[in-house]
Amino acid sequence: xxxxxxxxxxxxxxxxxxxxxxxxxxxxxxxxxxxxxxxxxxxxxxxxxxxxxxxxxxxxxxxxxxxxxxxxxxxxxxxxxxxxxxxxxxxxxxxxxxxxxxxxxxxxxxxx
Length: 112
Description:
The chain is α+β, with helices and mostly antiparallel strands. The protein is about 25% helix and about 35% strand. The protein starts with a strand and ends with a strand.
């Protein structure tokens, strides 16, 4: 079964970390990409670069940047092939954001 691991980061999670600590976290993400269950994944640009589109009353409204009250920011995702949910959860628990105040949402993909 294929799953999406949606990585939500806590803003400021890397503040105060040394260059070596940041490099170690990056190495963990790189190691995850080498896992045989990994199909693909991407890190997103910072939330400040986002543009949100809404349609209200037939008008297209665009807003730049993130919401000010957001406790977590969608930072990236992995697509994996796992035997079952437990297998997917084991991989999700290895994502550094989960222990740095963020979360990883695990969702099965719609099979076509």
